Every structure is written in C-alpha cells, then in structure tokens.
Hints:
It contains five helices and five strands, in the order βββββααααα. The chain is an alpha+beta fold. The chain has two domains: 2-87, no CATH class; 90-187, no CATH class. The radius of gyration is 22 Å and the shape is flat. The mean pLDDT is 84.
Amino acid sequence: MIKNDSEIEITYQDVTIKGNIIFKSRRVVGLEIVYPFKGLRIYSPTIPIFAMQYSSYLDEKGNIKEDRKEQLEKLLLNLYLGCKVFDKDKIKLNEIFQKFQKKFLAKLSDTLNADQFSERKKILKQKLRTGLITNIEYQKNLSKLKKELSDYDFTLYTMRDNFLKYIEDTYNIKLDTEVIDQLIKKHL
Length: 188
C-alpha cells in the first residue's frame, strides 16, 4: 500500500516492510527500504522516451498511478528479500564471494582496468602527437586497449552474475543485479 505518494508499506510472511519513495518522475521511481532494514535503494525500470505517450508512472496530478503501485511493491519486496538473505548468512556469503573473487582474480590480473586504460591511452596520445606512431597505429592500439577493458568488465560482470546465480539457486529467490551490487558493497 502506498501512502500519500511518499511512503510504501507491504506485508510479506507476517513481516511489515516499509519504504520511502525517494524519487518519482513520469519515467522512473526510486524506493528506499527503511524497515526492517535500512539504507538500500532501488529504482524502477525506466520507461523509454518513445513510450511515454502510452505509459508513465505518474498520473496528470503527479501521483503514482494505480497500475504501477504493484510493481513498486514488488521492488520493495525484492530489496527486503536481498537484505534478509545477506543479514541471515553474511559470513557464509562473504566466504562464497571470496571464492568467486579468487577464481576470477587470475583473469582480472591479465586484463586492463579503467585506471590502467586511461594511463595507457594518454601514452598513446603522446606518441601520436610526437609523431612516434601514425594515426592508423594509434587507432589499432586504441582498439586493442578497448578490447582489454571490455574483457575486464566482462570478467567482473561474470563474477557478479555467478554469485547472483549462487544466491538464486541456494535461497530460491530472484534478485535484481542492482540490489546485489548494493548488498555486496554494504556487506562484503
């Protein structure tokens, strides 16, 4: 149930879950859980601009539409379930996450992170400006750097997705990646 378009409250397995609506627009709504856990946020899927003439989170008065309230309640429930899992098994999940990190650490050490990318790109630009390499060589080397950065990002996302799959399989819940990212930052 959404109260005065700023608070949301649902009951799940005899537990009252409360949240605040921290942001609302025609395209997206943001929620923050405040009870029984605190401090995590989630945003609704964004409505594309081309679809706004047919769909919106808000009515003409700026209130959340009735047909969107159930979607927001599901988002709050998703936050709660994620918090509940991490609160209950924080130590075990930390150990599992560390195992995933070790497994992917070797791959990460062989790839380029964002800071290394920026540094190597600056060096390439300097070489181009001083005439040590041609524009074509610069483009080829830059393409290689971008591929390495993409490999790094892919490895990070694969690690996170494997951890998410472990949680889904173990606890039989489906969590948003946004929720998992926040829980990892907060608890692990």
